[in-house]
Amino acid sequence: MTTQAPRFWRCIPQRYNLIGTHCTSCDEYYFPPRNLCPNCRRGAQLEEYKFKGTGTVITYTTIYNATEDFEMQTPYHLAIIELDEGPRLTGQIVSSPGGIKIGMRVRPVFRILGKEGERGIIYYGTKFAPILEPSCSKERTP
Amino acid sequence: MRSVSIIGVGCTKFGERWDVSLRDMVAEAGVMAIDDASATGEQIDALYVGNMSGGRFVEQEHIGALIADCAGLSRLHIPSTRVEAACASGGLALRQAVLAVASGYHDIVIAAGVEKMTDVSSGTAADALAAAADREWECFFGATFPALYAMMARLHMRRYGTTHDQMAQVAVKNHYNACLNPIAQYHMEITVNDVNKSPMVADPLHILDCSPISDGAAAVVLAPTDMARRFSDLPVKIAASAQGSDTLALHDRRDLTTLDATVHAARKAFAQANVEPRQIDVAEVHDCFTIAEILAIEDLGFVEKGQGGKAVEEGMTALSGRLPINTSGGLKACGHPVGATGIKQAYEIALQLRGKAGRRQVDEAEVGLTHNVGGSGGTAIVHILTR
Fold first, then answer.
1. Gap between the Cα atoms of B129 and B214, Å rounded
2. Looking at domain B4-121+214-236, which of 3.40.50.300, 3.40.47.10, 3.10.450.50, 3.10.105.10 is its CATH number?
3. Looking at CA atoms only, how far is residue A90 from chain B in angstroms?
4. A29 and A71 in one domain?
5. B151·A78 Cβ contact <8 A
6. What percent helix, strand, coil does chain B show, rounded to 5?
7. pTM (2 d.p.)
């Protein structure tokens, strides 16, 4: 990771709890948080908003060849997810191979995202897991 | 605004150039371009250089001053500016140089591009390139460049029925073209089967769907069109120079299978040049991944949205096709030293329009286009060149 502690700490609310912004003027939701609403600009009424975290897979890939920070995790799944409130984000999906489909419903899970070596800080944050049907409730989240 | 022409071009061999440095390459390309323009150093008014990440690749910033120095022009104290837009840095350097001449501020201007990527490990290179994506909201969660384009590819396949074989044919075609280009990184033909059997990088993209890590430099010399014939018998006119931008992160785009930055830049460029997409005879487009060439020919308006894969399969974009795309071998097979790519595209189109492209010459090429993309589509630059 090229990030350092203060850089990570600044983003803890968003990465741990999916906190973003809601503009009450135009009723648009933003993730990550914005200081300006692109629709209303200076006329915006912004408030902090904690997303439910549930959403839908728009597209995905399985990564076999990663940057140095993620080499030990390959293969892993990455997806673009549309949160139920509207905004999209990029995140990992914890699932067995072949377990992901476009349109699949997902929920947030709190996971380790990376470490700054053996002695450095550990980065936590949100990954996503499939919302399984009740009939197959034995869920594995590696 | 004044009309601007290219009066000289130069380009080094692309590839793993362990024997030369960034400085050596930029000087070689610059000298070739100035010689080709029959100009002298004293006539140069300004320099622009595209370079994405000298800081990460060779731990050298301040590339503007460096290249003026390497080119032997330091005693002239002319303005020398480095510009950066990730993989579109070269295209942006060309555009800045065009604006400088068109505005009347400068007459003779060099636009160069350079990247030296093989002095670091491939992991470090991948991380340096990942800086073109959103570091906080894409890379932090494990995104890589192949992964971002793989997600575009997956959705394009789902929506339009594009197949991986069609994507592989982009690589096959570009390797074929590269075999005819002396400066290309790869002089080997490949088959669809080779692409399909090569290791997976980010599903559905295999290693042979990806452009390589490369070293190289390119340069062009610009002049006002009304002065161009004093320097060159075969000047190439820059009929349009356009630039578009979009969100940095892929996930914030309006449509994940369209590069709106390309659509907007292309629309502006075609209006400026007063030509239609069907009038383009040859184009160099940004094929950093095979799917990117399919997206590009759609977003530039050469085919309908969703028809790019089919057009490649039917041979429309082959050297013998109706619209040859990436005659140089493209980023895929000519190589992709990121800062140099946008200038190399102009170099290739200039050769085609002059009729000097050797065995890969497109017959009667009169109007050419270059298309250079930064990141996953946050920046797009389109130039239209004419005889």
1. 12
2. 3.40.47.10
3. 6
4. no
5. yes
6. 40, 20, 40
7. 0.96
| Pick from B187, B158, B149, B159: nearest CA to B290 | B149
Structure tokens at B274: 């007063």
Interface ipTM > 0.90: yes
Is B201 within 8 Å of A65 (Cβ atoms)?
Answer: yes
Pairing assessment for the beta strands B367-374 and B282-284 based on DSSP bridges = parallel
> Residues of B with CB below 8 A from A61's CB?
147, 150-151, 154, 202-205
Residue with tokens 């006539």: B43
| Token digits of residue B278 | 């069907």
What is the rounded CA–CA span in Å between residue B183 and residue B301? 29
* Interval A2-18: pLDDT, tens: 556 788 888 888 899 99
Interface list for A 66-95 with B (CB within 8 A):
66-71, 73, 76, 78-80, 88-92
Query: Residue A79: which of A56, A49, A45 has the closest Cα?
Result: A56
pLDDT tens readout for residues A82-105 = 999 999 999 999 998 788 999 999
Cβ B141–A113 below 8 Å, yes or no?
yes
Per-residue DSSP letter, B85 = B
Cβ contact B26:B90 at 8 Å = no
Residue A13 placed within a domain: yes
